[in-house]
Automatic annotation (TrEMBL):
The HIT domain, residue ranges: 22-124
Provenance organism: Trichogramma kaykai
GO CC term (a single one): nucleus
Gene Ontology terms for molecular function: DNA binding; hydrolase activity; zinc ion binding
Protein name, per record: HIT domain-containing protein
InterPro entries: Histidine_triad_CS, HIT-like, HIT-like_sf, Znf-C2HE, Znf_C2H2_type
Length: 192
């Protein structure tokens, strides 16, 4: 057999395989073009699949894998991330924002969501997308800081937080409930 015939046509793929999708935030902070702002402790990037008109992520330079791994030693960086979020929100004075963490994030590296409450995005496609921001699954930054300050960690009850993802679709601006995301998104246009 000719040696060259054993080399796959896409050999470059095997010598430099792509990262797993859950490491996408690491790739983003290693790409200078992705970074909107940076200081000694944090990076600010746009969410690659924004769930609203404005959706940013603040990541610590310290490698903290997730909210479950935060300790009292990380309290100052958490407070700094929240401060950066508030400064960033001030750049959008006519928008309302939520600032917080997903209880059970799917992406590696702690990241603070800074998201406008219009939720006007083609990437908002599923009930799960909605419920990750509109139920207690989304933990406000100030609550995370309080827990870490008081207990030294964030208590994550996996079953409790997973249950929030299965709750009914409810508008965040009125009491209306919806059976599907399409109906909810159509309704949101009235609020926006």
């Amino acid at each position: 057999m000719n040696m060259d015939s054993r080399i796959p046509k896409n050999a470059a793929y095997y010598s430099n395989p792509p990262m797993h999708w859950s490491l996408g935030l690491i790739a983003s902070i290693n790409d200078p073009a992705s970074i909107l702002e940076e200081d000694d402790y944090t990076f600010v990037i746009k969410d690659y699949y924004p769930k609203a008109r404005f959706h940013y992520l603040i990541l610590p330079k310290k490698d903290i894998p997730s909210i479950e791994k935060v300790t009292r030693d990380d309290l100052q960086i958490l407070k700094h991330m929240e401060s950066v979020a508030h400064k960033f929100v001030q750049k959008h004075e006519n928008e309302q924002f939520q600032i917080g963490y997903h209880a059970l994030p799917h992406m590696h590296r702690l990241h603070l969501h800074v998201i406008s409450t219009d939720f006007d995005s083609p990437y908002l496609k599923t009930k799960k997308h909605w419920n990750t921001f509109m139920t207690p699954y989304f933990i406000p930054s100030e609550d995370v800081c309080k827990q870490v300050e008081k207990y030294g960690y964030v208590n994550i009850d996996v079953q409790k937080y997973e249950a929030y993802l299965r709750t009914s679709l409810k508008c965040h601006k009125c009491p209306n409930l919806f059976t599907n995301i399409a109906g909810l998104k159509e309704h949101l246009m009235d609020h926006n």
